[in-house]
Amino acid sequence: MAENTVNVSIPRRWIVGMHAAGALLGFGAAFVIGPLVTWLLGLAGDAPGPLRLAAGLPLVWAIPVLTLAGLGVGFWFAKEWQKENGTITTTPEGVTVHRAGSNRYVARERIGGVFTDGRDLIVTDSATNELLRVNTDKVLVDRLRDAFERFDYPWQGTRDPHDHAFATWVDGSGLLDARTHDLLRARQRALADKRPGAAEDARDELRNLGIAVRDRHDAQQYRVIGRGE
Fold it and tell me: How far apart are alpha carbons 201 and 206 in whole angstroms?
């Protein structure tokens, strides 16, 4: 069974490397924090309280304290990195995205194309409707490609083959109906308010209307399925 399942996530060795990098930066900071605070005091007459506190530690204490602090920062960044990317499970039967305590499954028979576009992994059906669009780190692209090709999924590369059909959304333009504008407006507000769940709900409703949406250059871009393909 295991040989028919491929899980793609941030490799453990990279997570350990991030932990080690944090600890190493903390260790190095123990030797430069004093000169840095002295320079800031000479330049601006003041320095942030935490920096002054760290600079006041004897070196014998600064080394373990700042090394542990750096390790803690490394753990935090690694955890956020893992949370952001989750795990993508590929089998001959379908694809499952495990992320932020939720799971999303797309059956193989529904899939007509798989590709990445920047930091997005996109799965479409045979009519180019987007069945799935999730953020994924570029460092995972090769492993994702290998996983999909292993089970003969229609891998289409690292550029959206429908890129030319996307247009930047202009609120109130006559190119879209009122309902679509309402959903794009709601999604824009959700993104601005950092409510990813609400933004994803709006994307799902747009998908049901035959509209694909992506974020580029601080703006929403949309594609009407079947138009300009």
Answer: 9
Q: What is the pTM of this model?
A: 0.80
Q: What are 63-75's pLDDT values in tens digits?
A: 999 999 999 999 9
**How is domain 88-161 classified at the architecture level of CATH?**
2-Layer Sandwich (3.30)
Domain with CATH 3.30.720 in the chain: 88-161
CA–CA gap between residue 192 and residue 173 (Å, rounded): 21
Question: Which pLDDT score is estimated for 35?
Answer: 85
